[in-house]
Design brief:
The chain is mainly beta. It has one domain. Helices cover 5% and strands 48% of the residues. The chain has a four-stranded antiparallel beta sheet, with no helix packed on it. A four-stranded antiparallel beta sheet has the order 3-10-7-4, with no helix packed on it. The longest helix is centred in the C-terminal third of the chain and has 7 residues. The protein is elongated.
């Protein structure tokens, strides 16, 4: 049994809660940690729902034994299916200056694409070639 901190009980996930293989991908200027079967929301991509897309900007791949990283890793790709195109919840920005009679309300809803990660493949990377020789 691994001892846990009493004050932070439940804050950190246990090791068995993490999937063994995961990747860090980059899309829309942001980075996401994904594993097979995950569903993530990314900035709007120009595809229809139901289509499969390939994300080739894989910055890190880790399984239970090794870690491969690069910027991006050559030959690595993440295959995902577009579940839906949707809008995020409304964000309201309210500007106000006291005693001046000034207030402005502006808001927006971000457009998102929901992706379901189907597979992560490393392809022909340097780490695999080094193990082979």
């Amino acid at each position: 049994m691994v001892p846990r901190c009493v004050t932070l009980r439940g804050f950190f996930r246990r090791r068995e809660d993490f999937p063994m293989a995961f990747a860090i991908i980059k899309t829309g200027g942001k980075q996401y940690r994904v594993a097979e079967g995950d569903t993530i929301d990314v900035d709007l991509l120009a595809t229809e729902a139901g289509k499969q897309i390939v994300l080739s900007d894989v910055l890190l791949y880790a399984d239970g034994e090794s870690v491969t990283h690069g910027g991006p890793i050559e030959g690595a790709k993440v295959t995902a299916q577009v579940v839906e195109q949707r809008k995020d919840k409304k964000i309201i920005a309210f500007k106000f200056k006291r005693r001046k009679g000034y207030h402005r309300t502006v808001g927006h809803r971000r457009k998102l694409t929901r992706l379901k990660i189907k597979s992560i493949s490393l392809g022909g990377s340097k780490a695999k070639k080094e193990k082979a020789s």
